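FW: tagging you since you asked about this chain on Friday. Here's the raw sequence from the shared folder, copied in full. Didn't touch anything.
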Amino acid sequence: MMVATMVVMASAPAGAQGPDDGNGAINLVCTGRGEKLQSGYVNTLEWDRYDHRYRSRSGVQSEMRGFESAVTLQIYDNDGRIRLPQKLIPPLNSGGDHQHWWQLDNISVGNDEIRASYRLNGLNKPKVRIDRQTGVITIKGTGQDFSGTCERIDPGQRRF
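HL: got it, structure written out here
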């Protein structure tokens, strides 16, 4: 968690200032739990109720698998980006940078919530929603989702 905090502060965009400068900067680290669709080849035995014996079955099986991780968000007025854990990045993706940052699109910062989306690939454009009262984040995309709680990080400020 401490490493994520240092990365956020060290990798802020060049023109970014702190939250006290009046430019509307928001830096968040959100920890939580997610699920991702994963596929794999399986070879199992299944009971055949007609022949009353076990038969082998093999093939590709898909299932949702859970994981715990953290995402980082930086929002500066109507510009922003999200840093995704490797588990939320599909093998076929549209880019992001070498540190797994993705540009946020359609950013809406309201009094009660923050909404945005980002493009992983041509078929998957997850939606992000953050409740500003509770700090709860939800990310919903094709074959993946994530939910957790966000904490604000103010560059230059000590936590305790």
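FW: The longest strand covers residues 25-48.
HL: agreed, and The chain is about 5% helix and 55% strand.
FW: great, closing this out.
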